[in-house]
Amino acid sequence: MRKTIALLFVLVCIMASMTGCGGSSSATTVTNYAVVSSPVSRASVPGTKLGGAIQGSGLSFTNYSVSTFVGSSAGFSNYTSTANVNAMFNRPIAVTTEGTNLYVADYLNNAIRQINIVTRHVTTIGNASGLAGSADGTGNAASFNLPRDITTDGTNLYVADSGNYTIRQIVIASGVVTTIAGAAGQAGSVDADTGTNARFNVINGITTDGLNLYVTDSNNTIRRIALSGAFPVTTLAGAPGTTGSADGAQGDARFNVPNRLTTDGPNLYVTDFSNSTIRKIVLTTGVVSTIAGVVEPGGATGQDVDSTTSGQNARFNQPNGITTDGVNLFVTDSYTHTIRQIVLTSTGYSGAVTTIAGGSTGSAGGSTDGRGAVATFNKPIGITTDGTYLYISDNQNHRIRKIQRGL
Length: 407
Prior knowledge:
Layout: H1 7-15, E1 48-50, E2 53-55, E3 64-70, E4 92-97, E5 101-106, E6 111-116, E7 122-126, E8 137-138, E9 147-152, E10 156-161, E11 166-171, E12 176-181, E13 203-208, E14 212-217, E15 221-226, E16 233-238, E17 248-249, E18 258-263, E19 267-272, E20 277-282, E21 287-292, E22 322-324, E23 328-333, E24 338-343, E25 353-357, E26 370-371, E27 380-385, E28 390-394, E29 399-405
Antiparallel strand pairs: 1-2, 3-26, 3-29, 4-5, 5-6, 6-7, 8-12, 9-10, 10-11, 11-12, 13-14, 14-15, 15-16, 17-21, 18-19, 19-20, 20-21, 22-23, 23-24, 24-25, 27-28, 28-29
């Protein structure tokens, strides 16, 4: 039987015992639809920082080898900024990179962690206590409440602080943490010219093109936050409180628990979790289209189905994390513990969809390193690339995994 409870609620409600799941509105809904008049050009030069990843000419893998990068078991061992290659995580849920470091939203530790890609040393750069909170401040003086996703433009980190219904900014150089949108403890669907006057429900995903932030709101909308002025918030697509799967422009489009998203500059790509599809949003028009997968019952009720021709023939089982190298999308299909690759095309449905890592392990998952289907994951969620490798937050294994060219 299809798991009808979305992973949003499995992680937020069951694991973390969070009340108010789904972020019931406590304020009058105000929806101001807006598009992006001048989106960032598509990444074409290797090393371009975009979408919380390093994009360029595409990853040239021919086969895939999975290894454990850091982490081993549940717990919180690194309370200070002392480097610790053996640091542990507690349900790491998201990962991003500016090319030198990985940054992890350590969900049940309410913390932000930094991993040096070369040395694999881990430091805690936000909330060393591990206790939930909403305080702004510098470094470990700040606190978070169930940080659910994280992205970077290379200068700042931006955190979807889901338990607080807020967006937080961390200046990488100084560690200063500031709330730029939303208000702690106040859920709702309100657009506003001043970010802190806006209201969000549980925020599932966040990405950036360096000019704007884009977030997936569990109220079935995609929101935009301009990284200028007072961080004004508008709605890009979807209708607050309305579930569906319809394609269309802005308020005519429908989503069903949009989970995470990425951008290649002119477009957003969204994992529409409960529809088991991948959606594309053109930023200049707000037009939403389905580029891979089929809405249930063709999607989530079955196993993953690859396609050598088109995303229209592929099937997903509640896709979750997503990133792009500028040529392909890479998606974590969490309930089947697999990593999928989607070849982007300029129009219509995507090209081929392929399972590149993860084997069939049933509901239990696994933690085996190895090539392709030999490797196993246990609810992989966040995913990013530094232009050479893929990195995955393997949530229920409490690990960060690395995918590279097969050895």
